[in-house]
Amino acid sequence: MAEFITPGKLPNKQKVISQLRRAEQPGLSQISVQWGASAAKQITQAPNQIVSLFDGERQIVYGYVDNCTSATLHALIGYKQYSTIVPHPPSPPSTHPPSTSNPLSQVSTHELGITRGDTIHTLAARALIRDWADGVYSEDKITNDVIRQHKKENIIALSIQYSVLSQFTAFGM
User: What is the pTM assigned to this prediction?
Assistant: First the structure.
């Protein structure tokens, strides 16, 4: 999380302390979600690439997945690989402190599977559109541009279906 400091003004002591504490702790890196679904189905996830996370931060990951029965989160802490599975239905939250052997033990999710209404779908569509505009699909620029071009039609369709503004759509009142 960035802390902004106004030029010509002394930095807020709490902001400086917050940044120093964050710099001292290990972060999660190489984060990925493995969706428990049929391999034959296409899985659309936003954000496509999950950046590093630090203690106290959260990341919401949306996935359009048919018949999802679980989600497995994988991440590196330092050089050690950790994984945790979120089954369907998720277990009730634990009243015990997080496991020191698995720092990812506090991962939670809304019910996997059937979602009623359009709220989650609209939020996911917004995340997919934002990821298309700001995210990276590949480290190689040419590959990234090809993937973006391939996804453009789907981004327009999502924008129209869920009334979410994108750079390709406009909605009149």
Answer: 0.68
